[in-house]
Amino acid sequence: MASNQWELVTKTKKQRNLERKLEAHNEKKRLAAVGPRLEEILPAYQYQNLLAGRSITGEKERITSLKSASTGTKRKSKSPVKKNSKEYETKSMKQQNVNQTPKPAAKSKGLEATIREITVEKFITQLEQLKTTYVASELLWLKGVASFFNSNLVFDCDPVFSGKSAQYPSNLLPLPLKQALLQFLQTVAFVNLQYFFSSTLTQMTMDLSKNMPVVGYKLILQIVGQNWPSVCSENMATTAMLRNSYQNRSNICLSILWAVGQCGYISLMEGLKVWQNLMVPVLEFKSYSRFVSEYIEKVLHVADDQSLKLNQNQFFQTFKILKTSSNGLPRECQEALMRSADAILQKFIATSMKQSNIFLTLLRDLHDEKKNLIEIKGCISCLNKGNDSFRVWKMNYKKQLLPTLILLRSISKNFDGIAAPLEKSEAFHEFLTQVQILSNELRDPNMDIIMNIIQSTQDRTSNKRKQNAEAKKKCGCCKWVLGSVLLVAIIGAALTYDTNVNGKGVFAKSATGKFLKDAGLLPHVEKAWYVTMGTLARAYKWSEERVPGIAKPAIKLLCDLTKMLRNAACNIFTTLQNVISSKLPVAAKFLEQYVPGLPQKIENISVAVKNIVVDVFGKTIMFFKEKVLVGSLSPENLSKALNHTQNVALEYYNVFHKKVDTYAKLK
User: Fold this and answer.
1) Can you tell me the distance from the alpha carbon of 305 to that of 308, in angstroms, rounded to the nearest whole number?
2) Which residue has the higher pLDDT, 390 or 7?
C-alpha cells in the first residue's frame, strides 16, 4: 500500500564511484590541455613577488594575460565541441611539427665581429627611442638597453668565459660605444641601478632555463658590476635564493656566480664579501669548486683596490675558511686555496698596524712544521716588520714552547730566504740571549732541542757578521788606495803649477823649492827625484825591449777572442730575430683575442717611431753639415788640425824619449 509521504531516492554506491572516476579523468585531460602554469615556470619566491604586485608593469600585464588565457581555457573546457577524429589527429601532428621545428642556427660570425657591428649611432638611436616611449622611467630604459644588446648578441657561450681575461666580453666593445653606455648608466639613480642588476640577473636565469642566449645580459651585468662594485653585494639574500633555486643546474648557477663576482676585479673587499657569502657554500660541489677556488686567487692579484678593511676577527675568519675548506677538494683547487691564504695573510700583515697581535695568533696555531707553512711564513714576516713581535714572543715563551721550537727550526732553515733580514736584526739576537736565560729555569723534553737550535743560530749569525766585517775592511782598503792615488795626483798637479808659474820652469826657484832650500832639504829632494826618474827610465827602456815580444801574441789572442765573441753575438742575434719573427704572428693573434686592435696599434706606433728616428737622424746630420761643420770646423780644417796634432804628438814623443835616455844614463 502506497504511502502519502515524500520519500528520498538516492543513487547506489557503485554509481557514485563511477561518476567520481569520470570526473577525475575529465579533469586530468583538461589540465593536460591547459599546459604549464606560471608557478611551474618561475621559482617559488619570484612567483610570490609577482602575485604580491612587486614586479614591474610589464610583468603584471604578462600575468594578467596568462590568467585570462587560463580562464578562457577553462571556459572552453567546460563546453567541449565534438570533432572528427581524423581532423583532430591532423591538427595534433601539425602542432607537434611546429613544436619540433629546430631553432635557427647561430650566426657564423664571431662574437667580436658582431659586437663591432653595434655602432654608437645605433645605440644612441635606440636609447632616444626608449626615452621618448617611456618618459621618466629609468628602469624601463635600462631594461630596453639590456634587451637591445641581448637581441644583437645571439651566441652560445661558456658560463664563465673560461680562458678569457677578467674584462671579457666588455673589452670587445668599441671605445665610443662603451663610453656612451657608461655615460647613460651614470645618469641613472643608484637605487634603480641596484634593482636593474637584480632583475637582469633573474631574467638571465629564466632565459638560460629556456636555452635562450644571454651574452647581452652578461655584458651589461659585467659593466655595471665592474663600475659600481657595491651593486653586486647589496642584495646577497635575493641572489642566494636565486642560486639555491638553480643549484642543480651548473650552467645557470655558474652564470650567477660569474655575474655577481665581477665586483671583485675592481674592489678586493667587495669580492671577498661575494666569495664568502655566495661562493663558499657551493665550494664543495664538484661543478663549482674549480671556479670558486680560482676566483679568490685571481681577485687577490687582479683587483684594482687592494685595501683590506678588516679587523682581526674578520680576517682570521676568512683565513680559516681558506685553510679548512680545501679538505676533500681536487689537488689543483687545494693548491689555489693555499696560495690565496698565503697571499691574503701577507697583504693583511703589510697593511696592519699591530703585527704583534697577528704574530701571537699565528704562533698559537703552530702544531706541525709541514702543515703550518703559511702560518710560519706569516710569523717570520711579522718579525721582519717590527720589534713588538719579539716582545710578545718573549712574554708567551713559557706557554708556547712547542710553537717556539717549530718557528726557531724554520727560521734556522730559511736564513737564505725569507728569514735573511733576521740575521742582521739586533732585536732577534737579544731575544735569543733572553731565551737562553729563560730556558735555564724550565724543565721540558724539548728544551735541549731549543738550546741546540739557538746555539747553531748564534754561531751562524756570528760567522756572518765576521764575514761582513772582513768585507767592509777590504772595501775600506780599496777606498784608502784610491784616496792615496788621488792625493798624490793633486800634489803633483800643485807642484807642476808652482814650478811653471812661480819658478819659470825651474823647481829651485819655485815657492816650494825656496822653502825646501831654506830648510836644507832641497839637495836631498833633488837626489831622490833623480834616482826615482833614473829608475823609472831604465824600467821603461827594459819594457820597451822585452814587452813587445810578449804583447804581440797577447794582442793577437785578444783580437781573436773579440772576433769570436762578435760572431757568437751575431749568431745569437740572428737566432733571436728568427724566433721572434716566427712567434710574432702567434703573439699578435693572442693579443688580438684579449685586446682587439692592440697588435695593429703596436705596429703603427713602431712604424711611426722608426720614421721619427730616421727623420731626426737625417736632420741631425744635415744640421751638422750645414751649421756646425763649417768655417773653422769644416772637414778640411779638421783634417789639418788632426795632422798638426799628430806632428805635435810625434815631437813630444821624441822629446820624451830623449829625456828617458838622459835619465837612464844617471846612476
Assistant:
1) 9
2) 390
